[in-house]
Amino acid sequence: LMLEYRTRSMPIYHGGNLDGQVTSPAVVGRMMEANVPVKVSSIMTKEPVTIDSTATLASARELMRRKKVDQVPILSGGRLTGIATSDSIVFNLAPKADREVKGGRQQGRFDEPLADYGTGNLLTNEITDSLMDVYGNMKKEGANYSLIMNTGEVQGIVTYRDFMKLLERRSAEPQLPMYIVGLPDDPFSAAAVREKFTDAVQLIRKGFPEVSEARAIIKTGETRSTKRKCQVDVLVLSPKERYSYSVFSYEVADAFDQVNTWAKRLVSQRKTDQRRPTSRRNSRDPRFEQ
């Protein structure tokens, strides 16, 4: 409901009485109690909407309303100098308190430069940071966003809404039987594995529409370094062919990243085979002599 209605909190009622509220930071905080095996680049909003420092307060407000965003990075000459937030704009829209100036009260400060109202205290993380680092940064600063940087350039932005998308059910499930045996006990890790395997199966179906079933078996064990290691065996069936793949990894999520890479190779190989000429080569042609 919070995702659908784009709210950061919702009231909780019991028997007609208001008992409390649930907030997006609280939900994400509970999620972060588990080791969520997802990279920040996979949940961030890439290439976020930006605005030039010479723009007016009114243009920033209109941009936020039109794009339905609460934060807009401010650039000057392509360089990040600040960020305009819905809070910083709303609390500065009132007209200046100057008793010597008559009239113009309704105009407020809409035409003033945005640079005067942007938040200079930027909250940023590197694209290589973990989700836990990003969440910890946001919680410490009491912010609902973090700009994701790479070599000084804005790569994306993460909000609590982006974190909560991990809990969304996929709307487009593959229309074929798909089985996973040995899912992790942790619900968030299990959800990430399902997500990655579903992506791989959907990719394979683009190149192999005749596929009728997909299976994945996860086997885990202990190593001498006490880290859990796993083996993932994948089997994709069609009426005429069987495609199998096995991968070993220390993390289940990393193993399914490799499954996704294998799926891309499989589809790419089929496209190459389909483009290859079917005419038989002349074995006497000197180009093919050993």
Could you characterize the architecture of this molecule?
This protein is α/β, with parallel strands linked by helices and 290 residues long. Helix content is 31%, strand content 27%. It is built from eight helices and 13 strands. Strands 3-9-8-7 form a four-stranded mixed beta sheet. Strand 11 and strand 12 form a beta hairpin. It is globular. The protein starts with a helix and ends in a 15-residue tail after the last helix. 20% of the residues are buried.
Main sheet overview? 4 strands, mixed
Q: Please, what is the average pLDDT?
A: 81
Helical amount among residues, as a percent range? 25-40%
- Our measurement of the CA-to-CA distance between the termini, rounded to an integer number of angstroms, reads 67 Å
DSSP E strands, number: 13
Regions with little confidence, pLDDT below 50 for 5+ residues: 169-174, 279-290
SSE series: HEEHEEHEEHEHEEHEHEEEH
Assembly status: single chain
Number of helices: 8
How large is the radius of gyration? 26 Å
Structural class: alpha/beta
Largest beta sheet: strand ordering: 3-9-8-7
Global morphology: globular
What fraction of the residues are assigned to beta strands by DSSP?
A: 25-35%
